[in-house]
Design brief:
Strand content: 25-35%
Largest sheet: 7 strands, mixed
Helix content: 25-40%
Number of strands: 30
Strand order of the largest sheet: 8-7-26-25-30-16-28
Distance between the termini: 57 Å
Length: 569
């Protein structure tokens, strides 16, 4: 052991003999030059090789410098995020509300070079006798969105008042107009694209797809005609693929047309998160949605689906949290016709519900007596690109339907679409806002999987907190992801208590606790939420978009530039 020399001594010895602060060496390539010996005609005799320890030190300093410059670049980039405004005016007259919102919108942009907003959504609550199209057109001129604004009528909306407090407007008691507006960073050339599709629009999409199919000469030589047809009809073929789409559904629109639009958007934009709501129930002669479609400007729209395709730099992160818990075992819906459920597990629905009530615990029975049963239907499967018809193959499939045993294995991870039900005098159930058509079907299983639920707001608050924690954990796997700059919350009216304040209601308080109280939040009480189930972040592998019910659904706006050079500025 006397002859043992620590290998660390070879590193520490040169470091101990490093020159002082006034004797810093000058490094050129792999040689070390001292300032006193540097000459125009320097040679190898005036230089000495870099010691091992000094090479380690120089490498550490160089690496630290690179990381510091990268951190400074990311800090500069983080300050150039879009501006998000959530403005609520509670003026009883909609003309005064427009003036108040216009002044506040200009005040929010007092430090920006551009004095206009890029896109937005207007939620109109109350103001009976006024037109959604007129209010939206007036706000479009006031905000400078140039037609990139969608007007929606809802039963209740929330946002920040002119005093900076979170408040809520209710139809019938306190009218209000809430504006969600976004301004992109300086220099951005991307834009949002509004669209509207109804039954007539679906015919136009079909014609576009068939025209593209007629041009296919070699199967598999290009993308399927279905997604290309949808993008061409919407006019976004030459634009970068979006990572977020806002959707607003008229409640009068049929289930077939609504689901066809959602499925078409999922096929055309599989990586874009779709989020929105079902608007307020208005008389058939009054339209609850308005947008500038084509050259006609803002006008009342027929029953259908209206949306806003966001710029590619804006990504939506959606979180859908249920407000109801399962009760009883999983059931089979064996006989149904349209909105009527006639048999569950081969017997009367009233008898099936009575059996579940008898087997429930004391707390579950109390919840059933308070709010009644809810019926959860199995969510549709995810789309498969291999099964999309492109004109070169026939419709249908020869695959056998799944057995009940194999489907039971999926029950633990299944997402249920919860619907309200009302018992009738003859023992059947009426499913609200759902059309089951015919059960049993001609093709496939002769029954539907279903599950009874019951509303539990205390459990819903805990579940929402857990879902947000999962969302934060998922964000950790994405590099250089900025904090969200705004949020939109769409929730069922059953999730908001009448005695709760706006700042303590379900959804707002959880978001503020997790993401900070400075996050601007816009909210709306809806007749249904449109979003993928669970947690989804735009730009990743897609999930099928469905019409939810009895949930607290929220989308977070995130700035994710598609141009890498722009992100490094």
């Amino acid at each position: 052991m006397q002859g043992y020399v620590s290998p660390l001594r070879e590193i520490h010895a040169p470091l101990a003999k490093l020159p002082g602060r006034n004797e810093l060496p000058v490094c050129s390539g792999s040689l070390l030059l001292r300032p006193s010996t540097v000459a125009p005609t320097s040679s190898a005799a005036a230089c000495s090789p870099i010691p091992k320890g000094l090479a380690v030190a120089v490498g550490l300093i160089s690496g630290w410098s690179k990381r510091s410059s990268h951190a400074r670049a990311m800090t500069r980039h983080a300050t150039s995020s879009p501006k998000f405004a959530s403005m609520l005016s509670l003026q009883p007259s909609w003309q005064k509300a427009l003036g108040e919102i216009k002044a506040e919108a200009h005040h929010r942009l007092r430090s920006s070079k551009k004095a206009s907003w890029d896109f937005g959504v207007v939620f109109i609550t109350g103001h009976e006798g006024s037109s959604v199209a007129v209010i939206t057109a007036q706000l479009d001129r006031a905000l400078g969105t140039q037609g990139k604004l969608v007007g929606v009528a809802v039963d209740s909306s929330s946002g920040q008042t002119m005093q900076g407090e979170q408040s809520r407007a209710h139809a019938g008691t306190k009218s209000g107009i809430t504006v969600l507006a976004v301004q992109l960073p300086e220099g951005s050339t991307q834009k949002a694209t509004p669209f509207f599709i109804d039954k007539k629009g679906l015919t136009g999409v079909s014609h576009t797809i068939m025209r593209l199919q007629s041009r296919v000469r070699v199967k598999g030589a290009m993308e399927n005609a279905t997604p290309r047809g949808w993008r061409e009809y919407l006019g976004v073929n030459d634009q970068p693929r979006p990572k977020g789409i806002l959707l607003f559904v008229d409640p009068v629109a049929g289930k077939y047309a609504t689901q066809a639009v959602l499925d078409g958007l999922d096929i055309a934009f599989p990586e874009a998160a779709k989020f929105g709501c079902v608007c307020a129930d208005l008389p058939p002669t009054i339209s609850g949605i308005s947008a500038a479609i084509g050259e006609n400007g803002f006008r009342p729209l027929s029953p259908g689906v209206c949306g806003l395709i966001l710029p590619a730099d804006i990504s939506l992160h959606t979180v859908v949290s249920p407000s109801s818990v399962r009760i009883g075992p999983e059931l089979r819906l064996t006989l149904a016709d349209g909105y009527l459920v006639k048999e569950i597990n081969g017997e009367s629905p009233a008898k099936a519900l009575a059996e579940v009530s008898r087997g429930a615990g004391p707390l579950e029975q109390l919840l059933v007596e308070r709010s009644g049963f809810l019926l959860g239907l199995e969510a549709p499967r995810q789309h498969s690109e291999k099964k999309v018809w492109d004109g070169a193959e026939s419709w249908g499939t020869s695959e056998r339907a799944q057995s009940y045993t194999s489907m039971m294995k999926q029950s633990a991870s299944s997402d249920w679409l919860v619907r309200s039900i009302e018992p009738s005098a003859n023992g059947t159930l009426v499913v609200r806002r759902e059309d089951l058509k015919k059960v049993p079907r001609r093709v496939g299983p002769a029954w539907f999987r279903c599950q009874l639920h019951v509303l539990d707001l205390r459990w819903a608050r805990k579940e929402l907190q857990l879902m947000l924690q999962r969302y934060l954990s998922l964000r950790m796997f994405l590099q250089n992801l900025q904090a969200p700059f705004g949020a939109l919350v769409c929730q069922c009216s059953t999730t908001v208590g009448s005695k709760e304040s706006e700042e303590s209601e379900l959804g707002y308080m959880e978001l503020s606790n997790v993401l900070g109280k400075d996050l601007p939040i816009t909210g709306a009480l809806t007749n249904g939420e449109v979003a993928p189930p669970g947690i989804y972040m735009g730009g990743l592998d897609g999930k099928r978009t469905t019409r939810q019910g009895h949930t607290v659904s929220m989308c977070l706006f995130s700035y994710e530039p598609t141009n890498k050079d722009e992100a490094d500025k």
